[in-house]
Amino acid sequence: MATARDRDILPDTYDKIAFPINYKIVLHDLELGGAFAFYGSITIEVNVKRQTSNIVLNAHELKIKEATITVRGAGQQKASTITYNAKSQRVKLDFSQDIPASSDASLQIEYSGIMNNAMAGFYRSKYKPAVPPAKSVPMDGDHHCMFSTQFESCDARRAFPCFDEPNLKATYDLSIEIPEDLTALSNMPEKTVELNQNGFKIVTFEKTPMMSTYLLAWTVGDFEYIEDLTKRKYNGMQIPIRFYSTRGFKEQGRFGLLNACQILDYYSELFGIDYPLPKVDLLAVHEFTLGAMENWGLITYRTTDILFDDNRSDAKYKTRIAYVVAHGKLI
Length: 331
Description:
Helix content: 10-25%
Shape: globular
Number of strands: 21
Radius of gyration: 21 Å
Distance between the termini: 30 Å
């Protein structure tokens, strides 16, 4: 009979060493142009199940500057060595003193990465604007850029060091620093927006429910939206559903938005389970490998599977859009 050791999974999983509880992710100093680098600070609340001298995380194309473990009652220590295994997409954090078992430990990591053009992880999409873009929209060659994430099945590790396995669920708190004239979205609604003096703002989102790493999502761009509400009420409130696109395309999302409102109500009644989040956002992404990605609360779509131009699109594409929107909601 196959066991956990027979699969290529983290040793934290099969040896039951450490499990995540919450990720607090802060993204800052996004390089909008040039190398398209970004910098991150992450604090992972960890349940250390048994004494260990190291913790292994998934990380791919990230550079770890430093890592520190803090355990209540046992103090704090920095990782003595940081070792990468590119083939297995892992980073091993070794500590000079053993980390005691504790349900109250936190791992702080400073790191950097790249907003790549591989349509995986935290990546950039090129497009030609339909209207004059905001001043801060970066260029990549002759095209402008938006930024979004694609973490399924195992590419969250390209955006932040994590326990990137679907059974290792946790909650997430996300903050991201962006130019004032751009918009950031994530799975949950905005919690706060703090303006800086240098023309940037820090957008912080509400804590997510417990979920797998591959369902976390965020996006940054020159967006506009249209909105509708569910007819059905959830905890006494209608849920707002928005369709976002880069400026100039929002009206082409009306058919998808209409379907999204109806489908959310239909599935909630069909399965007898109320939709648990306070909002749903649909986002058209200009470069995208799939038809759609069912990020909880922020569903991303290939433009050809969500945009419909009443004056130019063939009516048969409405069937495809309805199908893709229904599939994204069903998952």
